């Protein structure tokens, strides 16, 4: 069974540019989560999809971040325009039940 | 608000010795508790969870964790460390009540097992 995949693995952009991160969850997993880890601190929740619907987006830092999940399959997280403080590692996770979340390898975003 | 504390950024232990990675939490009620591990260039991997029942939980790769309600702790332990255990370890919690399913993580502890 393929795991959660994320693309790209690393992105370097300039302040003010736009970046789109992609996450492909494990096939059949209805729940999809985005998290990020900024500057070696704790991993923080961004939002939660159930199928194509946003269940909880309380962790989204501001309206520069836009997440979508087309047809309840893959998800994208767009940052527009990017700011320096957006640098960090963005993780995606998926789950089918209430407990175990399976994480992808993360996308390291560097905003210069 | 809920929070997780991992008081040690770095833990060093000699191979073959027991290891402990500490975690305390602040959550109303009794949360669900988790440990994840991240190896270099890999995603977080699930190690173990506490849902209910026995306070000592056994997980992958010989790890175990003990839930202590009075001390609000969930320390990760292993009787005999391996060099291959060197990685970044995260403790996480999730409220038992309510519909929220997201995890709240600690800041991580880098474990280095010395040969």
Characterization of the model:
The complex is a heterodimer of chains A (112) and B (115). With 112 residues, chain A is mainly beta. Chain A contains no helices and eleven strands. In chain A, the strands form two sheets. In chain A, strands 2, 4, 5, 6, 9, 10 and 11 form a seven-stranded mixed beta sheet that branches. In chain A, strand 9 (88-95) and strand 10 form a beta hairpin. The radius of gyration of chain A is 13 Å and the shape is globular. The termini of chain A are far apart. Chain B is 0% helix and 50% strand. Chain B has strands spanning 3-5, 10-14, 19-21, 24-26, 32-38, 44-50, 56-58, 64-68, 73-78, 87-94, 104-105, 109-114. In chain B, strand 5 and strand 6 (44-50) form a beta hairpin. Chain B is globular.
Give a concise summary:
With 112 residues, chain A is mostly beta strands.
Compressed to H and E, one letter per element, the order of chain B equals EEEEEEEEEEEE
What general form of chain B does the structure show? globular
Number of strands of chain B: 12
N- and C-termini, Cα separation of chain B: 41 Å
Task: Pick out its properties.
heterodimer; A: 112 residues; mainly beta; four-stranded antiparallel beta sheet; globular; B: 115 residues; 50% strand
Please specify the SSE layout and strand pairing.
The complex is a heterodimer of chains A (112) and B (115).
Chain A: E1 5-7, E2 10-13, E3 19-24, E4 31-37, E5 43-50, E6 53-56, E7 65-69, E8 75-79, E9 88-95, E10 102-103, E11 107-111
Parallel strand pairs in A: 2-11
Antiparallel strand pairs in A: 1-3, 3-8, 4-5, 4-9, 5-6, 7-8, 9-10, 9-11
Chain B: E1 3-5, E2 10-14, E3 19-21, E4 24-26, E5 32-38, E6 44-50, E7 56-58, E8 64-68, E9 73-78, E10 87-94, E11 104-105, E12 109-114
Parallel strand pairs in B: 2-12
Antiparallel strand pairs in B: 1-4, 3-9, 5-6, 5-10, 7-8, 8-9, 10-11, 10-12
């Amino acid at each position: 069974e393929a795991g959660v995949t994320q693309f790209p693995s690393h992105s370097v952009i300039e302040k003010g540019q736009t970046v789109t991160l992609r996450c492909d969850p494990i096939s059949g997993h209805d729940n999809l989560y985005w998290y990020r880890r900024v500057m070696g601190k704790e991993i923080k929740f961004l939002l939660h999809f159930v199928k194509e619907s946003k269940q909880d987006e309380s962790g989204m830092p501001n309206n520069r971040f836009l997440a979508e999940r087309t047809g309840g399959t893959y998800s994208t997280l767009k940052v527009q325009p990017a700011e320096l403080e957006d640098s960090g590692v963005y993780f995606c996770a998926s789950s089918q039940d209430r407990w175990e979340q399976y994480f992808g390898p993360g996308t390291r975003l560097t905003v210069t | 608000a809920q929070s997780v504390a991992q008081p040690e950024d770095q833990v060093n232990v000699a191979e073959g010795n027991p290891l402990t990675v500490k975690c305390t939490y602040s959550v109303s009620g009794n949360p669900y508790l988790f440990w994840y591990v991240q190896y270099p260039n890999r995603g977080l991997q699930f190690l173990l969870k506490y849902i209910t029942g026995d306070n000592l939980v056994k997980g992958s790769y010989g790890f175990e964790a003990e839930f202590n309600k009075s001390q609000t702790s969930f320390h990760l332990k292993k009787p005999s460390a391996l060099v291959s255990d060197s990685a970044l370890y995260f403790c996480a919690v999730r409220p038992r009540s309510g519909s929220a399913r997201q995890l709240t993580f600690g800041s991580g502890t880098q474990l280095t097992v010395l040969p």
